[in-house]
Design brief:
The complex is a heterodimer of chains A (about 170) and B (about 100).
Chain A (H helix, E strand, L loop, with lengths): L7 H9 L6 E6 L4 H16 L3 E6 L29 H4 L4 H15 L5 H10 L3 E5 H6 L11 E5 L1 H8 L3 E4 L1
Parallel strand pairs in A: 1-2, 1-5, 2-3, 3-4
Chain B lengths: L22 H10 L7 H17 L5 H7 L4 H7 L4 H8 L10
The chains are: A alpha/beta (about 170), B mainly alpha (about 100).
Chain lengths: ~170, ~100
């Protein structure tokens, strides 16, 4: 179908209109609670808007889809100035577990699910989950280490192909 | 029977007044967003959405929808492919959900 414009100004106005986002590919590279949640919220928020979403887990971010680990993800209490906690205090045994517990409580109040449930919800919403091949090899992992919702272990090249035409978010 | 032309709506097409809503309007709004016919499963979600809003003054999250509406999350996205929470809220005649989840 061809579109005819009655004048140049109309044609330019249409060309300048912001393009709606139709696809996002989110990279999760960190394995702390505060490193993983933003990515999950972004991907889930995309699906809620009818936007296609891919999530690519790399390095320690793979803990979010690791069967043995995704139930035990903690807030980093050392090297995290945003917590306003003295470094020596952050390193006290049990501190990370305590802060994590408090944060989970605050999130539950907002109806934000724990990570394993959130990942399942994401997969059910149609988001596609992938593990990074280089990281899988580096940590000596295999398909069986991941939850069944993971679509595959893919290369960076595969990731770019899959992300083509959409936005890429690195977290 | 009311018609969409006779009710006030905001720029995104959500009803300005919750009390203007009826089931015919819901069907009309559904057609507008690409759902030709509201099935029994759609109505489960729409009614849950509306009843929750009327009782609590806020729309349920997608997590609550999946757990309590009687329709699991996978099916929610099949019924409302362009976004279950947003579309079901619109069809239910309640304001657009405000949360991020």
């Amino acid at each position: 179908m061809t579109t005819r414009f009655t004048n140049a100004a109309d044609a330019m106005a249409i060309a300048d209109a912001p393009q709606a986002i139709t696809k996002v590919s989110v990279i999760v590279s960190k394995g702390s609670l505060e490193g993983i949640y933003p990515a999950l919220i972004l991907a889930n928020g995309a699906r809620m808007e009818g936007i296609e979403a891919n999530v690519f887990f790399t390095f320690f971010g793979m803990d979010a889809i690791n069967k043995a680990r995704h139930d035990a993800i903690k807030v980093a209490t050392v090297g995290n100035p945003g917590l306003h906690l003295a470094t020596w205090l952050g390193g006290v045994p049990g501190m990370s577990a305590l802060v994590t517990k408090q944060m989970m409580k605050a999130m539950e109040k907002l109806d934000i699910p724990p990570i394993p449930e959130f990942i399942e919800m994401l997969a059910d919403s149609g988001a596609k989950l992938y593990a990074c091949k280089a990281s899988v090899e580096m940590f000596d992992l295999s398909r069986e280490d991941f939850i069944p919702q993971v679509e595959g272990i893919i290369t960076v090249g595969d990731f770019y192909q899959m992300a083509a035409g959409g936005q890429i978010l690195f977290t | 029977m009311s018609s969409l032309l006779s009710v006030a709506r905001n720029a995104e097409g959500f009803l300005e007044r919750v009390e203007d809503w009826d089931r015919d309007l819901a069907a009309e709004m559904a057609r507008e967003v690409g759902i030709p016919e509201l099935t029994y499963r759609h109505w489960l979600v729409v009614d849950f959405m509306r009843n929750t809003y009327l009782a609590t003054k806020s729309a349920p999250t997608i997590r609550t929808l999946g757990k309590e509406s009687g329709v699991p999350i996978k099916e929610l996205y099949e019924l409302f492919p362009k976004g279950p929470a947003k579309l079901a809220a619109k069809i239910a005649g309640i304001p657009k959900p405000k949360g991020c989840i």
